[in-house]
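Hypothesis: this fold can be encoded by more than one sequence.
Test: take the structure tokens below, design a sequence, compare later.
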């Protein structure tokens, strides 16, 4: 059994909003279900009617495809698209992660990790606040353009 690690789960919207969770756990179906529950509760408040306007794109991790996760997403009326393997350049959230990691974001060289989890939380919060909504929108546009580049059309 693997030991827990610091995990980051993120939902970003084409309008620039970012919702994230930092946890001291391995991401599996249980943690993802908890994340979905909390995220959808928040969306019910922030974006009433979200289920009819939001398309969730997932990378197809094993825990995204479990029966309990699929059942919960269906029960919530979520529209879901799962990308193919290794298609990081068409996933807006992967571009967001790359942006998060783009600069050395622990300039004070604070200890981070499991033993200093609060430092890790502070750094993630500061770094996510530095990424402006307009940049998040740009990441969406970049991912969509890349996805269209990869489409193959055939003349019938």
């Amino acid at each position: 059994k693997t030991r827990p690690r610091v995990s980051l789960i993120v939902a970003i919207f084409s309008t620039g909003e970012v919702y994230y969770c930092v946890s001291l756990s391995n991401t599996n179906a249980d943690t993802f279900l908890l994340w979905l529950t909390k995220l959808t509760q928040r969306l019910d408040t922030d974006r009433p009617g979200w289920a009819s306007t939001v398309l969730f794109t997932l990378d197809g991790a094993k825990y995204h495809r479990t029966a309990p996760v699929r059942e919960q997403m269906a029960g919530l009326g979520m529209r879901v698209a799962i990308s193919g393997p290794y298609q990081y350049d068409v996933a807006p959230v992967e571009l967001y992660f790359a942006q998060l990691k783009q600069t050395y974001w622990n300039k004070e060289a604070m200890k981070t990790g499991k033993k200093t989890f609060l430092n890790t939380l502070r750094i993630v919060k500061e770094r996510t606040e530095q990424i402006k909504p307009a940049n998040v929108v740009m990441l969406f546009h970049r991912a969509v353009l890349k996805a269209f580049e990869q489409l193959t059309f055939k003349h019938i």
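The mean pLDDT is 80. Helices lie at 29-46, 67-75, 92-101, 117-130, 133-150.
Hypothesis status: open.
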